[in-house]
Design a protein that fits this description.
6-stranded parallel beta sheet, 4-stranded parallel beta sheet
């Protein structure tokens, strides 16, 4: 990479996914999506692949954060995590992802009394997604329900225990199928204890699908308080699921759509334009961008 940069006369290098190479000798930046790999509770199994994973993310990637001219964080929660990891916030700039608006008319989540709730978990199955917590909560729910789990099963599946027959694992599905399931779900539930942004939650909100998300820092940035639940006990989540009805969900859906609307393509582009102008030395240093709203 340093040879290519010199060959083409690059003024700067940005690493959107992954670590910066050593020895660039030019301005450089890196995107911080999340730092979940620093948690001992979210590590892959041992062996050579696990060793490579830890070496790359916990050492090479964190080193590149320390070496970068600028760091782009996709949420305030991620910016805070980066500050803790490297002890420096002066080089961090906030640029939220864009969330394209869905067609709210396609949202079919309107629970009818007596009909089972169509619940959706969307995301890879890894420890930080906290799927056992959701399964524990559902065991306490008395009303009819079914849960569709969409996403690759990585590590941590053994901790799920015996899975209820009302739970279906779909694994990876093509985007059109995934989008259809997202639109048809009554509720998307995200019990994660760590997320950089939480794209499935944001997408569901844009589609007009009702969401319940864990009360963690990143979801406090854009998910209304009425749609968040404590991770202290599955009882809180079970109670929220039990109490859902068409009237209360309809009242909150407009709040969900309004809350995600500021994460627009235009604001996304403006933040990145300012970021790369600063990286190239064409603009004065910026502070954290204000939160959408």
């Amino acid at each position: 990479m340093p040879l290519l940069a010199r060959r083409f006369g690059a003024d700067a290098l940005h690493a959107e996914i992954g670590a910066l190479p050593y020895g660039m000798g030019i301005r450089s930046s890196v995107t911080a999506h999340d730092l979940h790999f620093l948690s001992s509770a979210d590590q892959p199994p041992g062996g050579l692949s696990g060793l490579n994973y830890r070496l790359y993310w916990r050492h090479l990637y964190v080193s590149s954060l320390k070496r970068a001219t600028l760091i782009k964080a996709i949420s305030r929660a991620t910016a805070t995590a980066v500050t803790r990891a490297i002890g420096d916030s002066d080089r961090i700039r906030l640029a939220y992802p864009r969330v394209d608006p869905g067609d709210p008319t396609t949202g079919e989540g309107t629970p009818v009394e007596g009909r089972e709730l169509n619940l959706l978990f969307l995301g890879s199955v890894v420890p930080r997604r906290n799927l056992p917590f959701l399964l524990d909560a559902l065991r306490l729910v008395k009303r009819p329900w079914r849960l569709n789990i969409v996403g690759q099963v990585w590590w941590g599946a053994r901790e799920l225990g015996t899975v209820d027959p009302r739970v279906t694992f779909h694994g990876f599905v093509p985007d059109p199928v995934r989008d259809g399931m997202l639109r048809q779900a009554d509720v998307l539930i995200c019990p994660s204890w760590d997320e950089g942004f939480g794209y499935p939650v944001a997408e569901a909100m844009a589609y007009g699908t009702f969401v319940l998300a864990s009360d963690i820092p990143v979801f406090r940035e854009y998910v209304p308080a009425e749609c968040r639940f404590s991770l202290n006990s599955p009882v809180d989540l079970a109670a929220k699921i039990e109490s859902l009805d068409a009237t209360s969900m309809a009242d909150l859906k407009s709040s969900l759509i309004d809350a995600i609307r500021p994460y627009s393509r235009e604001r996304h582009a403006e933040a990145h334009h300012a970021f790369f102008r600063e990286l190239l030395g064409l603009a004065s240093p910026q502070s954290f961008a204000p939160p959408p709203g």
